[in-house]
Amino acid sequence: MLFACGLGLTLPALADTWLIRDARVFDGAQMHAKRSVLVKDDKIADADFHGAVPAGAHVVDGAGRTLLPGLIDAHVHAYNHLELPLMFGVTTQIDMFTAVETMQAMSAKMRANANHGQADLYSAGTLATAPEGHGTEYGVSIPTLTRPEEAQAFVDARIAEGSYFIKIVMESGWPGHPMKTLDLPTVKALIAAAHARGKLAVVHISKLADARAALEAGADGLAHLFNARDMSGEEVAAFVQLAQQKHAFIIPTLSVLESVAGLREEDVMADAGLAALLTKEQMVPLKSPYGAQPNPALMAAPRQLVAALGKAGVPVLAGTDAGNAGTQHGVSLLHEVRSLVEAGLTPQQALAAATSAPARAFKLADRGRIAKGYKADLLLVQGDAGSDIGALHHIVEVWKDGDAASPLRKAQQDKVAQELAPRTQAPMALPDGGRISQFTADKLASPVGMGWVPSTDQFAGGKSTVELKVREAGAVVVSAKVVPGFAYPWAGLAFMPGAQIMQPADLRGAKVLRFRVKGDGRRYNVAVLSSGLTIPVNQGFETSDEWKEVALPFDRFNGIDFGAVTMIAFNAGPAVGDYQFQIADVRLVNE
């Protein structure tokens, strides 16, 4: 379903002849002060064109502008918003873990040369992890392994599914959240198995010791650096020397490390031109980093390493880990490139990290450069990106396979503008006292909207179940069984404020959601959806064996449009298990 939603805006193959004239050109390796580039159909016909304008060519003035290869995000998780990267000049994504069906569908489109309206995708498919290890926590069953003897069969199965490379997880968790992980012999066996089939082996790490162990084991690249305070000069030098000796590439993913450190991508969020391409739903992750409080000291070590790796010539690839909190597809790569410069790379090194370096590392021979015969995946920006990395924010045009993406960008801008248009209607009239729950033995009613319904992940293919039963006057018992089968499984009780299911209602007449609850001592979530969102915004609450009142101000639900609320749900999950709680006296009030 999410994949199909991502295909909503696509372009037919309408490639033509383009001449981008007299631009500053970064060819993936060096900057040329003034060049003209000729594109015919879906290929670069001449990277240094001289002569008369070809008949029928579309001429684009490049004066005062920089032409770049289409950007490559070297670390994403492509499960939604597949249309979004192209809006920001990202024409290729390297995916580190997504649904096999999504990977296969995208690969089929690319083979048919029918992917002109979206970024291309090269995916690892299912990652290699231990039972109950990182990657298994999303409620979807995936194959795992525990012993070196299983490695070759595991790798062969991934290749049969269509994996372009093999992603391996070394992740023991963090304080208060331990995780099971593959042992080093199994990691070594997986790397050897990938190499035996001519595939790259990329290893996820989050600690220095695991990073060193993965490189010693022969990993082709690391999928992250790690959060830590200052490293000693000896530690930095030893790590860089090891990466050099092993001819490995490093994808720092500063964007997601900043999210863990509680830092937001303020540069892109505050840019009106970029924000005009992001719906409210797409803005939500950028507003919600993993870290509850800013702790910039945690970025000291990764920034030290980026500077040292760049100075030593170790391939550094720009990757965002988009799909995680604090990031968003496409736009976060513009932030990542800026972060690489702030960490110590030169602007041209950072541009290479987002173009030619990932193409070379992942053996993508037809992209990442502006050269004759290469794919016509191009990005034109206003200004000199070779001296001011902020020029990437000022996009003039994007070409994917020789097609201009401006119609897609305009459609996205119109969609966002319509979503943000001011409302003229008055908010919905709420009942006296704001109570929206009227629970009786024969009906879960409400004086407004459609009322109350069971809420489970089954509509999205999940398998969780819920039973609702009134036990006390005005209270309903919610007995939920949350089971694997969906990425974020849930079950609970939902209020539909509109006259029909998922019809929006204007709840701006209230500012706080209040309710009474008691239960089994577990943690639950209030999930709110509004028009245009496919993923709810959640706020947690605790239960105990005594009744207590919970008050959740609307302003805690970042990204929700309370003028167009489609659902308010009280859910168990995503941790699997049996849950039970009681809820009563649900109100929408002003204080």
From TrEMBL:
Keyword Protein biosynthesis attached: no
UniProt xrefs under InterPro entries: Amidohydro-rel (IPR006680), Galactose-bd-like_sf (IPR008979), Metal-dep_hydrolase_composite (IPR011059), Metal_Hydrolase (IPR032466), Metallo-dep_Hydrolase (IPR051781), NADH-UbQ_OxRdtase-assoc_prot30 (IPR013857)
UniProt GO MF annotations: hydrolase activity, acting on carbon-nitrogen (but not peptide) bonds
Keywords per UniProt: Hydrolase
Residue ranges constituting the Amidohydrolase-related domain according to the UniProt record: 66-404
Chain ranges of the NADH:ubiquinone oxidoreductase intermediate-associated protein domain: 452-560
Cited Pfam families: Amidohydro_1, CIA30
Gene3D superfamilies xrefs: Amidohydrolase, Galactose-binding lectin, Urease, subunit C, domain 1
Protein name: Amidohydrolase family protein
Source organism of this protein record: Duganella vulcania
